[in-house]
Each structure stands twice: as structure tokens, then as C-alpha cells.
Amino acid sequence: MKTSRLITYFVTCGRLGFAPKGPGTVTSLVSLIFWIPLLYVTCSSIWIIAISVLLTVLAAKAVQVYEAEKNAHDLSEVTIDEWIGMGLSLSFAHPVLWQIVAAFAFFRLFDIWKPIGVKYFDVNYLKGWGVILDDVVAGIYAAICLGALQWFFN
């Protein structure tokens, strides 16, 4: 069975996952085109979290199908997890440049560094969930750090 183009397009974020260098960083950066307008339009973390949860469920299943077809786990071209994690990192941000930059920096730091919690999901959950949940946790860590910065500067 050949993986559908739609699943490939979805899990690679429109083929951003095939970027020759830093596909996770490229996808995280491009995802801002999607997430930032939501900050302006909704001014509410509820919508960003709801969309992230929906994408998480869809992505876990799609990644499972994609990995089964490729017979491999956590492929570098799969970047839907970065898209979701970046959204979560912005979930409590205000639409101001320093907060967007801080959320991006914190998310990339936690996604690459994989501290406790992030690494756990990456290693212990298969069938698509581990690929997605490690970035969900990295996004939550980034949101918490951004919240701490907001509190400190207010």
C-alpha cells in the first residue's frame, strides 16, 4: 500500500520537512504564518490550544500510517510535530514581536535539547504518538517559560 499524497503532504507540512537543512526549524518558522494571525484574531489561547489538540490527534494517526509505509520511526521529514509544538508555545503569547521571538527560541531549544519529559515521550511512545507528543511537551515548556518572562517583565 502506497502512502497517500495527502498524508505525506500533511506530515511533512507541505513538504517543508524535505528542506535540505534544518527542516524542523524551517517548519517552525513557516508555521508562524499560520499561528500569528490567530493571536491577532482570537486574542485567546483557547483557539490555539483547541486547534493544536485537533492537529495532534490527526497527526498521530497520519504519522503512524506514514511510518508504517516507510518502515522507520521519527523520520526527519515528518515536521507536523514542530508545527503543533510551535502553536502551543504561542498559546499564551500576546501578538508582540519579543514574545513571538521568545516563544520560537524556547520551543526550538526544548525540541532540540529534549529535557526530561520531552525525551520520555520521544523514547517511550510509538505508533505516531511519540513523534508528536515530545514536541507537544516542548511547546508546553516553551509556553511556561514565556509566561514566566511575561510575569517578570510586568
Structure characterization notes:
This protein has 154 residues and is mainly alpha-helical. It has one domain. The chain has helices spanning 5-11, 23-42, 45-70, 80-89, 97-113, 118-124, 129-153. The chain is globular and about 50 Å long. The protein has 7 helices and no strands. The model has no long low-confidence stretch (mean pLDDT 93). α3 packs antiparallel against α4 (80-89), α4 (80-89) packs across α5 (97-113) and α4 runs parallel beside α7 (129-153).
Q: Helix and strand layout, with pairings?
A:
Elements: H1 5-11, H2 23-42, H3 45-70, H4 80-89, H5 97-113, H6 118-124, H7 129-153
Helix pairs in contact: 1-3, 2-4, 3-4, 3-7, 4-5, 4-7, 5-7, 6-7
Structural class label: mainly alpha
Helical content (DSSP H or I, runs of 4+):
over 70%
Radius of gyration: 15 Å
What is the count of β-strands? 0
Low-confidence stretches: none
Compute the average pLDDT.
Answer: 93
How many individual helices?
Answer: 7
Domains, number: 1
Distance between the termini: 55 Å
Strand content: under 5%
Element order: H for helix, E for strand: HHHHHHH
User: Main beta sheet: strand number and arrangement?
Assistant: none
Query: How does the overall form come out from the CA principal axes?
Result: globular
